[in-house]
Design a protein that fits this description.
The chain has one domain: Up-down Bundle (Growth Hormone, Chain: A). It is globular and about 55 Å long. Helix 1 packs antiparallel against helix 5, helix 13 runs antiparallel to helix 16 and helix 15 packs antiparallel against helix 16. By secondary structure, it is mainly α.
């Protein structure tokens, strides 16, 4: 028995809970460190890079799933670790205001816990989806769960942004406690009992982890797709840690307003994904490669607009430009996810979990590298340039990387690969 559509949606609730916690650490806490505490942008960027770096363990989590590990345990346990890490990271921001040393030590521990929690929970969830979903439903299942994650990010960012006004440390702690507790409870209820009711369609993997990775890397298509994921995700995440500080320093946004801006951006991502899902899966319009290339080029154009309105300052149409960026980000991301799920079952050994782990690790490394590079470049450029020009230069660099990702997609992705059709009645 494979996953039903209702069970796929339930697993999507886990992705939604995961996104709702992660967005607090990558947007709200990041902005507080840079603007309210006046710390260098590279500090929160290094912490976020730490949590992404620890996700290099994703292939191992996927391999354990392929070998028959109990995924429910790792999904719930990983979410509990993530929730505890997010709560500790919030406390660390409060401590940083009075004791930099203790605050930094707590932050390092917290972000290490966050990385471990995301790796264990997220990869185990994707492995369950890849192995227990019927092949013809895999791309659609990935799209549904990813949309739900983006929805969780957008709603959490917007809601938390509104609740943090007027800002206080005590209010921040209360709000984050509510979010992480709710996310952990939702995860437990959503995933409980599903694994016992489905049969994961996979061949037993009796080889070693090193053998599995070596065989997958020897597959030309899997290797090239890994490179594409790294390049595109580097572009995707370069602005993640500097967009909210940009809004605060250049446009005068308050903490609540800048957090809501992140929610608006992720709302754009959601609409972009939904648009591609309806157009491609519902009406058969376009191919995966076409949507990826269009999304990357559109993202580059949106970044150019965000750069051009910087000199205007307060009153400039930043929100619409950021929503447009999110929309095109969503276009390319959902097509890339469809390709990922379709390719997961190809090649020798049908190592779906290990392949998803490899691509997840490539995404995590790119996210850490892109975020850290963007923040470091901003810090360096702000030494000699006005804030608007310094941030703008980094956004333009990101636009160039998006163009390079579009060219890579045109070369790597199979033009004959259509978006999988989603037919709920099947």
């Amino acid at each position: 028995m494979t996953l039903t559509w209702a069970q796929i949606v339930r697993l999507g609730l886990v992705q939604m809970a995961l996104g709702s916690i992660v967005v607090l650490t990558t947007s709200t806490l990041n902005r507080l460190m840079v603007v309210e505490l006046a710390l260098p942008a590279v500090l929160p960027a290094a912490l976020v890079a730490l949590h992404y770096g620890i996700q290099m363990t994703r292939p191992h989590w996927g391999f354990v799933s392929d070998a028959g590990g109990k995924r429910t345990r790792w999904i719930i346990g990983g979410m509990a670790m993530l929730a505890a890490g997010a709560m500790l990271a919030t406390l660390a921001v409060v401590v940083l205001d009075t004791s930099f040393g203790w605050g930094l030590a707590l932050s390092v521990l917290a972000y290490a816990m966050i990385g471990m929690g995301v790796g264990a929970s997220g990869t185990s969830l994707l492995a369950l989806l890849a192995t227990a979903t019927a092949p013809k439903r895999r791309a659609a299942a990935a799209t549904i769960t990813w949309l739900m994650m983006i929805f969780g990010i957008a709603v959490t960012a917007g809601t938390v942004g509104a609740m943090l006004h007027p800002y206080s440390d005590a209010l921040l702690l209360r709000v984050v406690a509510v979010v992480v507790t709710g996310a952990l409870g939702l995860t437990t209820l959503a995933v409980w009992g599903i694994e016992r009711r489905v049969k994961a369609e996979r061949e037993p993997d009796t080889g070693t982890f090193r053998e599995g990775i070596a065989e997958i890397w020897a597959e030309r298509r899997a290797r090239n797709f890994t490179i594409f994921v790294f390049l595109s995700m580097t572009a995707y995440f370069m602005q993640e840690l500097i967009l909210e500080p940009y809004a605060g320093l250049v446009f005068g946004f308050t903490p609540g307003q800048s957090t809501s801006l992140s929610g608006a951006q992720n709302g754009g991502v959601f609409v972009g994904m939904l648009t591609v899902g309806i157009a491609a899966t519902g009406f058969g319009l376009g191919q995966l490669r076409t949507w990826v290339v269009a999304g990357c080029l559109g993202s580059a154009a949106a970044l150019a607009v965000i750069t051009m309105i910087g000199p205007i300052g307060a009153g400039a149409p930043l929100v619409p430009a950021v929503v447009a960026l999110g929309f095109f980000n969503g276009m390319f991301a959902v097509a890339a996810i469809g390709s990922m799920m379709a390719l997961a079952g190809e090649g020798r050994g049908r190592r779906e979990g290990t392949r998803m782990g490899l691509w997840g690790a490539a995404q995590a490394v790119a996210a850490g590298f892109g975020g850290l590079m963007g923040a470091a470049l901003v810090d360096m450029l702000r030494m000699g340039l006005p804030d608007a020009e310094a941030f703008g230069a980094v956004f333009l660099i990101e636009a160039v990387v998006f163009v390079a990702a579009a060219l890579m997609a045109a070369k790597v992705m199979d033009r004959r690969m259509p978006v999988a059709t989603m037919v709920p009645g099947e």
